[in-house]
Amino acid sequence: MPNITYEETLANVNTNSRPSDLKITDMRFAELEGAPYPCILMKLYTNQGIVGFGEVRDMASKTYALMLKGRLLGENPCNIDMLFRRIKQFGGQGRQGGGVSAVDIALWDIAGKAYNIPVYQMLGGKFRDKMRIYCDTDIEFHRDSRSDGQNMGYALKKRMESGYTILKMDLGINLLYGVPGTLTAPLGFFEEQRRLSELSRKLYPTPWEADAYNERVAVRNTKDTDELMERFIARNNARRHTPKHPFTGIQITEKGLDYLEEYVSEVRSIIGYDIPLATDHHGPIGVDEIIKLARRIEKYNIAWLEDPISVQYPEQWRKLVSSTNIPICTGEDIYLAENFEPLMNVNGITIAHPDPLSAGGILETKKIGDLAQKYGVRMALHQAASPIHAMAAAHIGVATENCWACEFHAHDVAWWNDLIISKMPKPLVNRGFIDVPDLPGLGIDDLNDEVIKEHISSWDQGLWEPTDQWNFEYASDGF
Questions:
Q1: How far apart are CA 234 and CA 229, in angstroms?
Q2: pLDDT, tens digit, for every residue of 343-372?
Q3: 353 within 8 A of 382, measured Cβ to Cβ
Q4: Strands (E), 308-456
């Protein structure tokens, strides 16, 4: 048998990926509008042509990720845990976890592509083949011949017809604004909050606020830096003068509770009782008001109350859980598994609800699920952005035993599936589930720049532009 040299052997194998020699070489971004929320897509490049896809939390800042670039360049992206431990000190609660989380997701994607295995397999394999998706649903308030409860019921019925097996709707005091006798607060409070809210939305309108969106485009294009600064100051003042939920002093009257109970009753009369129905966005009210509302709607078999009070007060969560038989759910703004423990230690939640783009990424979210299981708590995943986010959540979900469902906001975004180039069948969310494929990494081959260009952010229209100015960002931070 002839002797075959090492070089001759390499000539007959694919050496596009040599994991031990991988190095991170660059980090670049594209920002989108309306997916359905503003979101920030990230590419992490390597010296072997493998690109990992990550995403900064919706309505956050790419700066949270850019500040990490100099700490990653030249490192092997397959050393995921080591790199996460290096950068996790630069994350924080809420959107501040977005940079660390984006990087972590991109690292898992690269490692999966380098070793030619899916992310779920690197997490230990699957408990299920599909990720159940629950559909969040918004409606416009028509004030027509039907009540808003009926309008919501018919909107949710359409979701059921599309195959979703869990539903969620908003149920908060915003439904009571303008309805006399339903809310109690210091005179003038609601008028002042409405004024401040209008100011705060000048720069970050919601997708359906066309006038505010157009104003934001005008602000971006203005050459008047004084005007721009004035708007930023106005937004910051609005936030500064908006009290947090426990401190507003808002109370719901019996008439208000009757109104909200009737709303839920009308929804259930249309969708029936076979399907779980969760509620969210209850408004800036304290724990005692949430307990009053919960007791009124318990009879309608509510799947969970989501983020009803501020996460900083574990004893209030314990009080809430012990005061109602409706499951209590929170976590989309909690960073790291360790920060879920104060709530779990006091039996303060019954459903953990992390967002992989806030929690710290893929492994940290998996750890949250395993921690929750230790306490007998289910997990559901918050997800409200691009297919990158959705596939990261789906891989985590199928690899976590107690993961019940994953959120989805983009059912009505026609171009959402076209953001990615992949061998996965489309639509990704099909009849209320994501089939998690046996493809390398997240299963995404590339991003569709033509679609991205059509929906590029009015605020930042750069498409994968160089970020060399962040290569040498340095601080003696002990890494």
A1: 9
A2: 999 999 999 999 999 999 999 999 999 999
A3: yes
A4: 328-330, 351-352, 378-381, 403-408, 420-421, 429-430, 433-435, 446-447
Burial status of residue 25 (CB atoms within 10 A of its CB: 0-12, 13-18, 19 or more): middle
How far apart CA 218 and CA 228 sit, in angstroms, is 10
- Of the ranges 147-156, 317-326, 360-369, 380-389, which one carries the lowest mean pLDDT score? 147-156
Q: Which residue has the tokens 């908060």?
A: 172
CA distance 352 to 375: 10
Contact predicate 453/431, CB 8 Å? no
The domains found in the chain, sorted by start residue, are 8-116+459-470 (3.30.390.10), 122-179+249-448 (3.20.20.120), 186-245 (no CATH)
| H or E element, residue 30 | strand 24-32
Contacts of 460 (CB under 8 A, 6+ apart): 31, 62
Q: Is the pTM of this model over 0.85?
A: yes
Summarised one tens digit per residue, pLDDT across range 262-310 is 999 999 999 999 999 999 999 999 999 999 999 999 999 999 999 999 9
In the numeric block, which tokens belong to residue 162? Answer: 């599309």
